[in-house]
Amino acid sequence: MLKFEQNIRGNVALGINPLGCKQEVLNQIDYVKNKGTYQGPKKVLIIGASSSYGLATRINLAFGAGADTIGVSFEKGPKNERNLGTAGWYNNIAFREAAEKDGLIAKNFVQDAFSHESKQEVIDYIKSEFGGKVDLVVYSLASGRRTDPDTGETYSSSIKAIGEPVVGPNINMQKQEFYTETLDPATDQEIHDTVKVMGGEDWQLWMEALKEADVLADEVLTTNYSYLGTELNHDYYGGGTLGRAKADCDEKADNINELLTDINGKALIVVATAVTTKASSVIPFFPVYCIGLYKVMAEKGTHETTIMHQDRIYREMIYGDKPEYDEVGRLRPDSWELDSDTQAKTKELILKLNEENFNSELTAYDIFYKEFSNLSGFMVDNYVDQEVTLEELKALKY
Ligand code: NAI
């Protein structure tokens, strides 16, 4: 029988519990089902569908709006007892099983979304088995590397400041340490490469390919998740390399809007709230911001997990009657995070933190750590220990 151990290096989870991942997906499905159904899109393509924001979006649209979904992700299956694959692999399977049980199409493509071949395969599938058109395309990809499909050159993203180094507190979850970190400024090359990986180029390439193939429905919507943050994380996020990549997505949204004019389509940047994900846990200093922010928001009753946030975005904002747009037309569900009292209290709290108190009742370290653990199937609500063999895991098909 397999033993599942939570193994963390720095703020990166190495161990996974595949059965815990499944339970976490079921918990999110329950969250959405308990809120009831709503009128939304019926044929959806989600790029980056296997974890956090993309997965929560998919769960929400399938079980809230009754959508058939195609999910593209880059995940790995089990190899041996020490390498059980990635959490997203099992999330994809758990999602497909549950969706199919409810009579929904849930097609998983596990491959490099950046390549032309991936786009073509998805297009072929939409034409042959998915009814020919999609009415929503969600772009929720986060990656450290991207190979340009035209030149074959591979770029790596860097999470760095721009101009001046940034010095501040960070947390190491493996060692349960609070320490001071220095983030160097990026070179011009690093800025360029981060925009290549995390900017909007691939989003635009997807939309061009889908349009060209005539698989976008009239009035198609495409969403892309951004983060703008606040004064408290500006130096290392908004003002850093990731901020540049997000600004590039804004520009590409304009291009896509132009591209979609004749079919009355729309590209929408959704500025989402800070949540605990595989990608956000490794942003320097960000965990400290989160443990302060979550504490304040939990006390105010505004703290949201990925599924809560995505449910609100689609059910209440995009397909509901409570959208909030900013002056350049971006959707702003992050307004709860940006609330001035929330930010003032978060700042006050973060300034008090040190090695002794960072994981005490003063902060939401407990919430952050649980949410982080949930991503790999640990500390999952309603989880009951079960026995499973490697062969059984290998037999699961995505
Ligand atoms: P994540 O790391 O949990 O998920 C990334 C997804 O992309 C996974 O499904 C993964 O399999 C897929 N992926 C990565 N490389 C791929 C490739 N080459 N081909 C196909 N699929 C690939 O990321 P997270 O945190 O959910 O981020 C999604 C988006 O949301 C990002 O644009 C991020 O900047 C944005 N966002 C995140 C916030 C946060 O606090 N985590 C806040 C606001 C926006």
Strand order, main sheet: write it out: 5-4-3-6-11-12
Put simply, the count of helices is 14
- The CATH class label is Alpha Beta
Largest sheet, described in full? 6 strands, parallel
How helical, in percent, are the residues? Answer: 40-55%
Shape: globular
Name the CATH homologous superfamily: NAD(P)-binding Rossmann-like Domain
Radius of gyration: 20 Å
What compounds sit in this structure?
1,4-dihydronicotinamide adenine dinucleotide
Structural class: alpha/beta
InterPro entries: Eno_Rdtase_FAD-bd_dom, Enoyl-CoA_Rdtase_cat_dom, FabV-like_NADH_b, NAD(P)-bd_dom_sf, Trans-2-enoyl-CoA_reductase
Catalytic activity: a 2,3-saturated acyl-CoA + NAD(+) = a (2E)-enoyl-CoA + NADH + H(+)
Protein name: trans-2-enoyl-CoA reductase (NAD(+))
Organism: Carnobacterium antarcticum
Task: Give a quick set of tags describing it.
globular; alpha/beta; 14 helices; two-stranded antiparallel ribbon; Rossmann fold; about 400 residues; binds 1,4-dihydronicotinamide adenine dinucleotide
Compile the SSE list and pairings.
Elements: E1 8-9, E2 12-13, H1 18-35, E3 43-47, H2 52-65, E4 68-73, H3 87-101, E5 106-110, H4 116-129, E6 134-139, E7 145-147, E8 154-156, E9 166-172, E10 177-183, H5 188-198, H6 201-212, E11 216-226, H7 241-259, E12 266-271, H8 278-281, H9 286-300, H10 306-318, H11 335-338, H12 340-351, H13 365-374, H14 390-395
Parallel strand pairs: 3-4, 3-6, 4-5, 6-11, 11-12
Antiparallel strand pairs: 1-2, 7-8, 9-10
This protein binds 1,4-dihydronicotinamide adenine dinucleotide (NAI).
